[in-house]
Amino acid sequence: MSEDISTGRNVPIADRDWESAGVLAQDQRVDTQRVLPSRSDEIVAAASSVVGGPVGRHAAIGRSRAWTPIRVLFLLALCALAMGWFGKSGCLQQAESGSGASSTLRLNWDNQRQYTNLCYSDVIGLYSAEKLDEGAFPYRTYWYEKGPDGQQVKRYMEYPVITGLYMYGVAWLAQQWDSAHEKWGVPAALDVVLFFNLVALGLALFWLVTIWATALTARTRVWAAWMAALSPLVVVHIFTNFDAIAMAMVALAILCWARRNPWLAGVFIGLGTAAKLYPALLLVVLLVLCLRAGKVREFVEAAVSALVVWLLVNLPIFLLYRNGWWEFFRYNNDRPAERDTLYRVISDAAGFTWHTDLLNALSLGLLILVVIGVAAVALIAPQRPRLAQLAFLMVAGFLMVNKVWSPQYSLWLVPLAVLAIPHTRLLFAWMVVDALVWIPRMGLYLDADRRWLPEQWFTAAIVLRLVMVLALCAVVLWEIWHPEDDPIRRAPGSPPDELLDDPAGGVLDGAPDRLALRRSALTAG
Q: How far apart are alpha carbons 184 and 140 in whole angstroms?
């Protein structure tokens, strides 16, 4: 197809009244539905001037065999990943310990390098903290350390099973590599540096899977994934912890659901929940949407497969090392409010310390209110919300009311935000603010003579980030209640009054509302 200048309509290339300068390809199809950011997005249109400007009106979209959208997105993501690795490389510097023949290499974190260089990563610290440097198997090995109350606490690996086994597997590989260096002269470095680099390689692959799945879920808006690929949050935090594993599982679950494969979506939800707890929230979102659409059977398929997969992963560790398996829940129950949370801002301002039981009860109670609120939005909105919109609201609500909001947790929102909120300026404003929180946060750990910012700057940054996330939620809610303002519901070239349902909704897309009458009756009453 190609656009006819006189009518503005797409017509087959062979029907045009002109002759080609060469032999036409046998495959004459073009993608007339793809949304082109260089035409529709002011920011992308301006940026495209670097490479020749927006795509031409008569370009044959979708015909390139080399520079496909997915490959370009991978290239952009690799650029961000490279910057992320270089950002952490300051913490991989080595120094000699001792002198003469007895000198050995050690990690050079002298003069608080990990904070002054903004390169701190849990991946490096956990290598020794979780006894991985000793070859210890997670959940079986324990040690003692001081708890919040000053008492000695018996500790195990505090990460869910898939994350813990990933850490152990990479640590084993790093040690084997180091052994090969000693036996055969294979180039190597400190085992902790090898560990970080191998972990980073795996996390980079998980992130590329996330980009791939997000781009395919976006369908005609495949280019929207560029905002995730080049996110400042990815540059700062992709290698701060192990969250990329669960994020990839969530992205794959949403893609499978969008492709009408509920049981496979459940498999990835189960795997994600075995790596990090937050993917389980996706089941709540699917439940309320399926209730409204009358697709309960599909939800049951997803929920059952998620539960079965989660049990298959967790049961062996639970049966063999019950105390070690339970450590994740014990640790999160006993830990205080983190500095990044609203609870800590309130306690610091009021001059008191939260009692752990009260804090847990308050956090749980607010989470229940978030779930009820999101469910209410799903059931009473004038048009059934899109899956990505509701998933974003659920995860954002969870972060805002949870007593822990580690800096890298903000990454969870990036793929969901790209699918839910097609507004480039707003998304990048939030991601830049959220990424910059890292600067005052690192300053908190510096000695007094090195500290570059007062603690109040960090508090202000946390509050500003909270305001930005609330603004994103407000935009999502507005577009749920005003679907005509949602760009994703408008197909390219379609009349303004013709709205799509949920292009990534899978079995939900185009399904009638089974609760519409009940909702109308509730409103009338």
A: 32
